[in-house]
Each structure stands twice: as structure tokens, then as C-alpha cells.
């Protein structure tokens, strides 16, 4: 086995869900060595967190400037080679830009930036740096999502006619109805979260997913958002009509006030010959529907699955794999790219996906603000 890639992390300290998800995922295929980073704005808290994790505090830095300066002093083969950005949204762009300018590979949480303009600037920076950049649209790492993508590309469902994606959560429901609470969390603060909460947080997952599995691009959209209260500046619910072409239409439904829902993410693609359905809360099952035929259920790990799907499957059939495994597959793809190994372009979301996501968010907000009208996405 080759030498492990040294990994640094920005954010993700304390009881952060996303922090443990990235740490576990990065360790799955023995490709990365987590060595340090900046986990908290308070340096002492960062060091305490490192001690809790059992890693040395010598590479726990005060801030990003300190990380870059100190890592540059080390021999090249000992330096942090890739940094994962797990901070609130408003920090993604400046941190990613600075890292790219200093030659680091980057794995960034979504949304990639807080504006489309920032995303395009980041693309220019990446082109100059010639490093690897990944955006963690996590659910693209599931084996049966990759199988779904490959089946559609192979024409197994025929020409696509209808796309329906739903992402429902309920976690903001108890917060939104308390004025003090809704004014205190960063996700409902435009200065920290950007112009959108629900669409920016989970709607962008749904948007990336439908373009990933279908191989199609959304050309136009019409959005209707819900803010619930007039003093709330961030959407917490939205429905978006989609046009892929004159005869291929779809709908994206996203909500964080779907009372009682946990993480109800479902993708349905219907073609002339068949349909495919997948649900994140039961990710090992891919359903194939055909007129006049019993519904078929495909599961991971079987030889009938594609090479891309099987590459993302660690265990024999019947052993459930979940979101940690899905994120692990993205890290695995990034490791291949950094090491110069051959990899499938669908193994991890790239800068292009991040840019498309930011264009989508801004167009959704624009469509709603203009009175729920059709607007075109950039090509």
C-alpha cells in the first residue's frame, strides 16, 4: 500500500455531525491520514478537541494563515496535501480560494460558496492551481445511485420523460416558530448562510442528484418558496418546476418544515421503457418499474451491478451500507485523483457541480422574487 495522503480539516469540531462523517469516511479505505487543522476559532478548544480524538496538537493551528505558513516549512512529503472545509457556508469561498492559491487540494462541503460569482472566481483559481477540488454532494456515493446512473446511461429505461425528486426534513419546524431561536441560528442568517437556507442546504443536493443520475441538465426553472414569517429572510421550503427540454419536465420539492420528517430524500426517473426509484432512508434498494411487469428490486454487491456501483461497495450482498460509506466513496475517488490513478469521472462531484449548484440556488431565489416566473440557467 502506498503512503497515506495527509489530511487537514477546517471546522467540524465538537459534536458536529458533518465532522464525524468526514473523519470516518476519510479513514475507510486507508488512503488518508488525518493529522490536524483548525477545528474551532478558539485555539485552545481546537487543541482540546484534537486530544479527545487522540491526534497530536502540534498540527492544530490558530487559523488558516497559520496552517499554510507552518505546513510550508515541512518537507513536501510530510505536508498536509488535502484540506476538507466543514465550516459555515460564508467561509467556504475565502478558505477554498486561499488553499487553492497555496497548492492544496480541497474537499469542500456544499453549497460550495455563497454566490454564483464567487463560484466562478473559484473555478479560475482552480484552473491556475492545477489541484483537485471536490464538493461533497454525499449521496452520489451510494452504490445504488451509481447503479441508477449507469442503467439510465445504458438506455435501460429508454428516453427520459419525467423526473421527480423530493427532499423533506422537519428539523427547522420547532425553530422557525420561535422568534428568538430563528434569529439566532446561522443557517437562517444571510450573512453566514447565503441567500437561501432550504434550497441552499438540501435543495442543492436534490438538484445535483437529478443531473448526476439522469445525465441531463436543467435548462429552465420556476420556483415558489416559503419563508413562513415576514421577518425570516431565508427560505425553509420550496417547490421548483424544471425543464430539461421541450418534452422532458420535472419537479423538485424541498422542505425543512415537513413536520416529523427526518431525511426523506427520494429520486424517481421515468423513461419510455421503465422507471427507477431510490430512497435515501432505505439506500440499499433500487426499484425498477415496467408496464405489465412485477416491480424489480436491485441491491448492492451483486454481479449484475455495474463496475462503478461495485467499486463503491465494500461488503457482500445483504450487509447494509449507509451515509458514512457513501461519503467514503467520494474520499476514495479523490484519493485516486490526487495519486494520479485511473478513476471514473462519476466517483466524486467536482467544481463544475459546485458551480451548477450555485447557479441553481440563485436562479431559484430570482424566480421566486420576480413573482414565480420561468428563468434560464446558464449553460
UniProtKB/TrEMBL annotation:
<dbReference type="InterPro" id="IPR000683">
    <property type="entry name" value="Gfo/Idh/MocA-like_OxRdtase_N"/>
</dbReference>
<dbReference type="InterPro" id="IPR055170">
    <property type="entry name" value="GFO_IDH_MocA-like_dom"/>
</dbReference>
<feature type="domain" description="GFO/IDH/MocA-like oxidoreductase">
    <location>
        <begin position="145"/>
        <end position="276"/>
    </location>
</feature>
<dbReference type="Pfam" id="PF22725">
    <property type="entry name" value="GFO_IDH_MocA_C3"/>
</dbReference>
<dbReference type="InterPro" id="IPR051317">
    <property type="entry name" value="Gfo/Idh/MocA_oxidoreduct"/>
</dbReference>
<dbReference type="InterPro" id="IPR036291">
    <property type="entry name" value="NAD(P)-bd_dom_sf"/>
</dbReference>
<protein>
    <submittedName>
        <fullName>Oxidoreductase</fullName>
    </submittedName>
</protein>
<dbReference type="Pfam" id="PF01408">
    <property type="entry name" value="GFO_IDH_MocA"/>
</dbReference>
<dbReference type="GO" id="GO:0000166">
    <property type="term" value="F:nucleotide binding"/>
</dbReference>
<feature type="domain" description="Gfo/Idh/MocA-like oxidoreductase N-terminal">
    <location>
        <begin position="28"/>
        <end position="137"/>
    </location>
</feature>
Amino acid at each position: 500500500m502506498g503512503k497515506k495522503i495527509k489530511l487537514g480539516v477546517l471546522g467540524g469540531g465538537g459534536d458536529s455531525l458533518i465532522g464525524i462523517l468526514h473523519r470516518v469516511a476519510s479513514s475507510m479505505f486507508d488512503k488518508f491520514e488525518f493529522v490536524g487543522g483548525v477545528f474551532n476559532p478558539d485555539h485552545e478548544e481546537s487543541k482540546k478537541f484534537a486530544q479527545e480524538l487522540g491526534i497530536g496538537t502540534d498540527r492544530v493551528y490558530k487559523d488558516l494563515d497559520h496552517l499554510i505558513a507552518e505546513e510550508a516549512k515541512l518537507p513536501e512529503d510530510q505536508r498536509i496535501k488535502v484540506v476538507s472545509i466543514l465550516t459555515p457556508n460564508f467561509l467556504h469561498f475565502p478558505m477554498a480560494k486561499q488553499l487553492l492559491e497555496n497548492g492544496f487540494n480541497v474537499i469542500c462541503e456544499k453549497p460550495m460558496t455563497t454566490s454564483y460569482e464567487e463560484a466562478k472566481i473559484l473555478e479560475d483559481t482552480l484552473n491556475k492551481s492545477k489541484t483537485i477540488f471536490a464538493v461533497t454532494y454525499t449521496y452520489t456515493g451510494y452504490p445504488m445511485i451509481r447503479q441508477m446512473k449507469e442503467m439510465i446511461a445504458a438506455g435501460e429505461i429508454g428516453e427520459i420523460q419525467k423526473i421527480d425528486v423530493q427532499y423533506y426534513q422537519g428539523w427547522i419546524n420547532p425553530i422557525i416558530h420561535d422568534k428568538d431561536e430563528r434569529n439566532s441560528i446561522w443557517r437562517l442568517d444571510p450573512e453566514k448562510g447565503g441567500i437561501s437556507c432550504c434550497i441552499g442546504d438540501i435543495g442543492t443536493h436534490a438538484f445535483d442528484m437529478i443531473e448526476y443520475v439522469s445525465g441531463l441538465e436543467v435548462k429552465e426553472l420556476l420556483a415558489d418558496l416559503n419563508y413562513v414569517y415576514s421577518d425570516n429572510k431565508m427560505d425553509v421550503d420550496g417547490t421548483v418546476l424544471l425543464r430539461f427540454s421541450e418534452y422532458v419536465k420535472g419537479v423538485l420539492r424541498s422542505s425543512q418544515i415537513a413536520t416529523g420528517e427526518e431525511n426523506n430524500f427520494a429520486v424517481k426517473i421515468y423513461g419510455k421503457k421503465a422507471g427507477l426509484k431510490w430512497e435515501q432512508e432505505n439506500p440499499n434498494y433500487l426499484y425498477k418499474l415496467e408496464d405489465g411487469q412485477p416491480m424489480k428490486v436491485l441491491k448492492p454487491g451483486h454481479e449484475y451491478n455495474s463496475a462503478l456501483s461495485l467499486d463503491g461497495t465494500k461488503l457482500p450482498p445483504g450487509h447494509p451500507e449507509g451515509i458514512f460509506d457513501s461519503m467514503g466513496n467520494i474520499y476514495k475517488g479523490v484519493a485516486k485523483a490526487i495519486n494520479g490513478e485511473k478513476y471514473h469521472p462519476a466517483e466524486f462531484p467536482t467544481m463544475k457541480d459546485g458551480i451548477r449548484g450555485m447557479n441553481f440556488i440563485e436562479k431559484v431565489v430570482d424566480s421566486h422574487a420576480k413573482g414565480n416566473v420561468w428563468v434560464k440557467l446558464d449553460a
